[in-house]
């Protein structure tokens, strides 16, 4: 099987890269071992909320030079300020064209309301999530937070009391829906996704609308746990029309419906563009010649190799086995790539669990094109995108989704440009220059420098 590009991993990074490449007409396969961080995420996407020195970031695009000083190995610093500035708007467009309704902009962070009613800065949030502008009061006066009886993954009282502390009226309520009784009998099944499968049925949605109407008299906004609209956010608009008041969804404990919807929507987009998804398969080896990947082998395809001009490693971090540990060693399991941050065992963590944790910055070492190094040498046709990259802390810096999306687009643009040059060496001017790093400008093809 021969493709232009094989992508390993179908998290936010793999899907973004696949969509962009497929949009550009590349034949592309994504091999995916299992669920991604999206299944556990808030559904909001962070770009940059704090600098490594702890300072808050209100306008992410304006602090990139400072970030480059503080963290030269950060993926944003590698990609470069100019490239980030254009890729970020490309990212917003890609998500929109995929069918995701998100609010927010890279020019200024906004705050989303968290599952415990606090504010957290972010870049993009699903349209149905309650958000507010930075340093501004909450835009509601009297909110009702409605939980579902027996559903332990969302606590309306905690949310309401946090909202009250922010100066608005807020009340907690619980509804009992008999259509959920069968699920309620088995607490381990009483999860957001299973609840949504029942509440999304038209007959149950009307019952839900009636219950919500009764519990929301005198309130100007309704917060619910994200247990509705598994397939599409349109159902929230429908409910809004039936109840006649704005309805917002707060993320619950995993599995996260808001993240799953992003995953599903992006997968659908990739497939519609002609991309091949190999779900439930796992890459277990690659063939290499002269620092060039020649074959990719997977569990399901056995000794039938997948071949591609370029390979993208988007296998995530420890959470999805993109990185692994043994007692005193951290390693990248597929190719044993060089790691950027790899201190002694005793320095992986800090005792204070709320302090930034060193292990979160572990990840693969790359050149300025985001091509990984192995034993100090670049692998020519391999790129690394997303959480498998080292040099940044997605939690403390609030930049997890941003790094995944922007590194994936940065790589996709390089592959598109590179393959355009290979296909038509005399027409290098067709290459979209504004998003190409210097190292891949036409004159430098074939003599890329390694920058560590
Ligand atoms: C629990 C959790 C919650 C998070 N929530 C947020 C959030 O709300 N907002 C935010 O901005 N950031 C969040 N992040 C940060 C997160 O890292 C990024 O947002 C982003 O989703 C990571 O995407 P990724 O594609 O790089 O990696 P992942 O999502 O980890 O995807 C890696 C993929 O690679 C696959 N894979 C691994 N090895 C192989 C193999 N050998 N063969 C085939 N497939 C393989 C895995 O199965 C998985 O599908 C969260 C991270 C975690 C861990």
Automatic annotation (TrEMBL):
EC number of this enzyme: 1.1.5.3
Pathway terms, separated by semicolons: Polyol metabolism; glycerol degradation via glycerol kinase pathway; glycerone phosphate from sn-glycerol 3-phosphate (anaerobic route): step 1/1
Cofactors demanded by this protein: FMN
Record keywords, A-Z: Flavoprotein, FMN, Oxidoreductase
UniProt domain FAD-dependent oxidoreductase 2 FAD-binding: residue ranges: 4-403
Keyword Transmembrane helix applies: no
Alphabetized GO MF terms: glycerol-3-phosphate dehydrogenase (quinone) activity
One annotated Gene Ontology cellular component of this protein: glycerol-3-phosphate dehydrogenase (FAD) complex
Catalytic activity: a quinone + sn-glycerol 3-phosphate = dihydroxyacetone phosphate + a quinol
Transmembrane segment boundaries: none
GO BP annotations, alphabetical order: glycerol catabolic process
Keyword Flavoprotein: yes
PANTHER family to which the protein is assigned, alphabetical: 4,4'-DIAPONEUROSPORENE OXYGENASE (PTHR43734:SF7), PHYTOENE DESATURASE (PTHR43734)
Family affiliation: Belongs to the carotenoid/retinoid oxidoreductase family.
Quaternary data: Composed of a catalytic GlpA/B dimer and of membrane bound GlpC.
Role description: Conversion of glycerol 3-phosphate to dihydroxyacetone. Uses fumarate or nitrate as electron acceptor.
Protein name (record): Anaerobic glycerol-3-phosphate dehydrogenase subunit B
Gene this protein is translated from: glpB
């Amino acid at each position: 099987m021969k493709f232009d590009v094989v992508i390993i991993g179908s998290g936010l990074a793999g899907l973004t890269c696949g969509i962009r490449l497929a949009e550009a007409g590349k034949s592309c396969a994504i091999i995916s071992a299992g669920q991604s961080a999206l299944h556990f995420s808030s559904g909001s996407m962070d770009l940059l909320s704090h600098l490594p020195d702890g300072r808050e970031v209100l306008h992410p695009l304006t602090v990139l030079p400072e970030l480059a000083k503080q963290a030269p190995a950060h993926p944003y610093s590698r990609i470069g300020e100019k490239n980030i500035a254009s890729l970020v708007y490309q990212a917003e467009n890609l998500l929109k064209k995929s069918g995701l309704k998100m609010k927010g902009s890279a020019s200024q962070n906004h705050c989303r309301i968290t599952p415990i009613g606090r504010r957290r800065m972010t870049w993009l949030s699903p349209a149905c999530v309650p958000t507010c502008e930075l340093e501004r009061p909450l835009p509601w006066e009297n909110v009702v937070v409605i939980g579902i009886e027996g559903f332990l993954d969302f606590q309306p009282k905690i949310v309401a009391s946090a909202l009250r502390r922010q100066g608005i009226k807020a009340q907690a309520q619980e509804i009992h829906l008999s259509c959920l009784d069968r699920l309620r009998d088995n607490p381990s099944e009483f999860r957001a996704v299973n609840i949504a499968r029942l509440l999304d049925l038209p007959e149950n949605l009307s019952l839900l609308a009636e219950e919500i109407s009764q519990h929301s008299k005198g309130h100007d906004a309704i917060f619910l746990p994200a247990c509705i609209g598994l397939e599409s956010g349109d159902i929230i608009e429908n409910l809004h029309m039936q109840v006649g008041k704005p309805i917002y969804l707060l993320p619950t404990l995993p599995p996260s419906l808001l993240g799953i919807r992003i995953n599903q929507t992006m997968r659908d987009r990739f497939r519609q563009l002609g991309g091949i998804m190999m779900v439930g398969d796992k890459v277990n080896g690659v063939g290499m010649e002269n620092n060039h990947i020649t074959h990719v082998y997977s569990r399901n395809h056995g000794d039938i190799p997948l071949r591609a001009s370029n390979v993208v490693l988007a296998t995530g971090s420890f959470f999805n086995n993109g990185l692994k540990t043994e007692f005193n060693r951290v390693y990248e399991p597929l190719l044993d790539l060089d790691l950027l941050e790899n201190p002694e065992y005793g320095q992986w963590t800090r005792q204070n669990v709320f302090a930034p944790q060193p292990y979160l910055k572990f990840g693969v070492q790359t050149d300025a094109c985001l091509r990984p190094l192995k034993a100090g040498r670049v692998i020519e046709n391999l790129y690394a995108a997303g959480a498998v990259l080292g040099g940044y802390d997605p939690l403390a810096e609030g930049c997890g989704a941003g790094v995944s999306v922007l590194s994936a687009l940065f790589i996709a643009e390089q592959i598109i440009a590179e393959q355009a040059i290979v296909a038509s060496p005399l027409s290098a001017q067709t290459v979209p220059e504004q998003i190409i790093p210097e190292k891949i400008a036409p004159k430098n093809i074939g003599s890329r420098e390694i920058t560590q």
